[in-house]
Amino acid sequence: MQAWQVHENGEPSEVMRLQEVERPTPADGQVLLKVRAANINFPDVLMCRGHYQVRPPLPFTPGVEICGETEDGRRVIANPALPYGGFAEYAVADAAAVLPAPDSLDDAQAAALHIGYQTGWFGLHRRARLQAGETLLVHAAAGGVGSAAVQLGKAAGATVVGVVGGTEKAAVARELGCDVVIDRKSDDVVAAVKEATGGRGADVIYDPVGGEAYTQSAKAVAFEGRIVVVGFAGGTIPSPALNHALVKNYSILGLHWGLYNTKNPKLVQHCHEQLTELAARGAIRPLVSERVPLDGAAAAVQRVADGVTTGRVAVVPSLENGAAA
To answer: Element (H or E) spanning 10, and its range?
Structure first.
């Protein structure tokens, strides 16, 4: 079969190589899956660079989120068991963690429903306890993680303020349903949040960026507000001033969704049921901005690394080489 492999760490476009390799053999408790679509996530970028908390042995195939087909024809979503990731024609996954793909979504959309939406659901509902009528601020609102949080926030009855970088991404954020869109490249983010909330600030802030975005969050959070720290796509891990959290009376909440797979897997299943129901009634629908064939995966992962994509980019092995949709 064909699979992308990383033999050394570096930028995705430089270290990912498309090769002919043996089809993986599932270990005990695993299943072989034919890849129908593989969603590109920022952890794929970090693993190529050798900067992720999980470091699979070299060589490995990246791709942490797929919609696949079981040997008996069932359509499922899964996190492949590394080093046999999803940017390939076949992958393996732990059988206990495989979830049914929602009938209301196509393969690329189903692949995109998993990590980003699970992270959003746990962050907003389990950690921040977002309530209807509250104001939710989402950084990188047009990106893969942020777009999921925007849709989930709207579905929960919140007023959603989206922060983006550039006019193209601002248009995407509006289409996603943001009530207010702030362009960090031209607007004063903190002043704009205060203006949008009558000076009160945001009740919940969802931050997958870190760095300057976190600094803005601490200034824009409301009394008894909650900042959910999801990741550091901006490349800088902030050092929060805890005296500031004390004086302003807000909470800083960490979220590592992967821990729920080992600490409370039943909650992951419950979350998937909630997401499937929301998708079935059209309250959420993953924004798949691009579908690329298998031979376009490395270039697509690099675009995600460079921060120039919106929504999700999916690798679809059945697309003809050189085609895109």
So the answer is: none
